[in-house]
Amino acid sequence: MAKLNTLVVASIPIRRAEDLEKISYALDADLIELRVDYMENPLDIDYSVLPRDKVIVTLRDISEGGVKFHDPQIKVSLYRALWDMGIRYDVEMSFLSRYDIPYENSIVSIHIMDSPPKIDVLCQQIIKYIDKAFVVKIATKPFQGYKSYLARLLELGDKVAVMPMGVDPIERIGFSLLGSRLIYGYVDEPTAPGQMHYKKIKEILNTLSLL
Ligand SMILES: O=C1C[C@@](O)(C(=O)O)C[C@@H](O)[C@@H]1O
């Protein structure tokens, strides 16, 4: 089997600065996501000490699965500071449509929590960001036809990542085999429904890529 396109992301909820120690638990992941929307104040972290080749900082909008509400201006200032430090972040398409922040080499995402956009409309959005983004990521709660919908989005190239939320985590392995650029797993607690432990993902994908 050819080498898979998928990068394994270990996702960590960050509630306080001390939680950054958990990065050391997941250094064998390809990337480590720090979900700082779990914090009261995401600016309470010294981001400059983070391993910039490894981390993704995510301040997830509450409307797309975020845990706490944060003022959008906090997110704008945080992401602009991360940009200046060369640290990758994850920003929603909806946020980019309302606020002017760079997204080159970052993850541009959408989380479908109820009815999906028309697939042609979403494809246009993906195409708009795909050249400059690191990855364009689509995560969705299940709906009638979600598997073929996500598989269709993977046809847009090897910088697209798709994942279903709230279904059997093994389905994510399937989308990795179909070319999803990212697959998310947890370290000590899931950051979304439908994740398995990131080490289990690594074990399965390593076995499959040996076939
Ligand atoms: O967007 C994603 C994907 C995710 O929601 C998942 O389904 O694993 C987990 C989030 O932490 C991450 O930012």
From TrEMBL:
Keyword field contains Amino-acid biosynthesis: yes
Molecular function GO labels: 3-dehydroquinate dehydratase activity
Active-site annotation: 111 (proton donor/acceptor), 137 (schiff-base intermediate with substrate)
InterPro entries: Aldolase_TIM (IPR013785), DHquinase_I (IPR001381), Type-I_3-dehydroquinase (IPR050146)
Binding site for 3-dehydroquinate: 11, 33-35, 60, 172, 191, 195
Keywords from the UniProt entry: Amino-acid biosynthesis, Aromatic amino acid biosynthesis, Lyase, Schiff base
Domain of life: Archaea
EC number of the protein: 4.2.1.10
Known catalytic reactions: 3-dehydroquinate = 3-dehydroshikimate + H2O
Pathways per UniProt: Metabolic intermediate biosynthesis; chorismate biosynthesis; chorismate from D-erythrose 4-phosphate and phosphoenolpyruvate: step 3/7
UniProt record, GO biological process: 3,4-dihydroxybenzoate biosynthetic process; amino acid biosynthetic process; aromatic amino acid family biosynthetic process; chorismate biosynthetic process
Protein family: Belongs to the type-I 3-dehydroquinase family.
Role description: Involved in the third step of the chorismate pathway, which leads to the biosynthesis of aromatic amino acids. Catalyzes the cis-dehydration of 3-dehydroquinate (DHQ) and introduces the first double bond of the aromatic ring to yield 3-dehydroshikimate.
HAMAP family reported for this sequence: AroD
Subunit architecture: Homodimer.
Stated name of the protein: 3-dehydroquinate dehydratase
Lineage: Archaea, Thermoproteota, Thermoprotei, Desulfurococcales, Desulfurococcaceae
Name of encoding gene: aroD
